[in-house]
Amino acid sequence: MKAVLDPDCALAGGLAAIRDQFHVPEGFPPEVTAAAEAAARRAPTAHVDRTALPMVTLDPASATDLDQAFAIETSGSDLLLHYAIADVAWFVEDGDPVDSEAWKRGATLYLPDGKASLYPKVISEGAASLLPDGPRPAVLFTVRVAPDGEVKLESAERALVASRAKLAYETATEADLSPQFTDLARRIAEAEARRGAARVDPPEQEVVRRPDGGYALAFRARHASEDRNAALSLAANLAIADVLQAHHTGLFRVMAEPDAAAVQRLRNTARALGIAWPESQSLVAFRTGLDPADPRQAALMLAIRRAGQGASYAPWHAGTLPWHAAVAAPYAHATAPLRRLADRYVIRATLAIMAGQPVPDVVEQAFQRLPKVMGHADALGGQIDRAVIDLAEAVMLSGREGETFAAVVTDVDMRGARMQLADLPVVTRIDAPGAVPGTELRVRLVGVDLANRAIRFEAVADAG
């Protein structure tokens, strides 16, 4: 989801310019809409009836493109996660207009004022969405979770499911959720800790109005149910990755560890934010103690999230372990097919394997093509994210020209010095000859250019 929320529409004009700059689509071509409307009327005929399972969904309150529904039951000392994922492939056929358009987009693009969906609403927020207004076709994964958090995919089948409730992070209570929900999340978290996983989920930023009429960037409180819900997807994706790896096929999400330079930048950022990080403590050990409810620690969590060498997609290849450093294991994306193109093909491959059938050629071929398509979608989403954050920072600082701020240089490269403000979640560049990482500065805001989403500081004095 987006890193910045804008409930008061303070960014409206700038967001329109971002949409124009990055050619964010406003809708779908008529032939795609017509094909989607016809597909949405397709009755599920290859699905077993699993409507007796007490499924619920858990998402942001405003979400209507619901990829996932779940039910959890006890099986001896294990837990069984019944995880229903929207059966997008039932509505989208290879080579049809909806499929062709999805290959052009790759993923849903999110901005604070709305999204550009991967699929037309009649599918993504209607026929395929796991809304609680009647049975929906889904792919039902059953994942066995052992007491130590190890996961195994027990089955995968096309099924009709019926969500009992559309729960929201903001309002869901313990009574609304399965009694095993918290236990399952705990098991997955403990397994992550044993693996040395460095996954971090910072809270979202939002633009809020200050008492003086200006704006500030703040962090929205993250609900415990969000983290626990993320554990369900993690469990399913890890179990699916194991199956794909064992059968020498699939598409994996891969990411290298942050390099030494990135870790040093994070240490400098921690220093700028006044957060103690002992030299003897690793990044993995350090991040587990960060509190997202503390604005400065939340800002550092966001920096850690952005510090990796970049996640990408890779097809299975003999002799190569598809490793994702943040989860410290092979990992696949399968649980958000309404929002990511790649997930639809990972799901199809897993269905075939679990049914004892060969993976269709069209899916194997897609695994070779998808890294480029998904890489482009990731890059575009990242550029839009950065532009939105730049805009939010400019709006936040507008009217504060002439003020001075404390900052710390986090790194220096060919383009000059990058600094982190000590009291605001702002990272920007400054002309500071002779500065080295860790240099403390006093800087004055000398310009804000809302049209170009730019802010400009000058060094006042070295406070170090």
Labels describing this entry:
RNase_II_C_S1, alpha+beta, 12 helices, RNA binding, five-stranded antiparallel β-sheet, 464 residues, 2 domains, Exoribonuclease R, single chain, OB fold (Dihydrolipoamide Acetyltransferase, E2P), 19 strands, globular, five-stranded mixed β-sheet
Give me the secondary-structure topology.
Layout: E1 4-5, H1 12-21, H2 30-40, E2 48-49, E3 55-59, E4 68-75, E5 78-86, H3 88-91, H4 97-105, E6 109-111, E7 114-116, H5 121-127, E8 136-145, E9 151-161, E10 163-168, H6 181-195, E11 205-209, E12 215-219, H7 224-246, E13 251-254, H8 260-272, H9 283-287, H10 295-305, E14 312-315, H11 341-354, H12 361-397, E15 404-413, E16 416-421, E17 427-430, E18 440-449, E19 454-462
Parallel strand pairs: 1-11, 2-9, 3-10
Antiparallel strand pairs: 4-5, 5-8, 6-7, 8-9, 11-12, 13-14, 15-16, 15-18, 16-17, 18-19
Explain the overall architecture.
By secondary structure, this protein is α+β, with helices and mostly antiparallel strands. The protein has two domains: 341 residues, no CATH class; 59 residues, Beta Barrel (OB fold (Dihydrolipoamide Acetyltransferase, E2P)). 34% of the residues lie in helices and 25% in strands. The chain is globular. The model has no long low-confidence stretch (mean pLDDT 92).
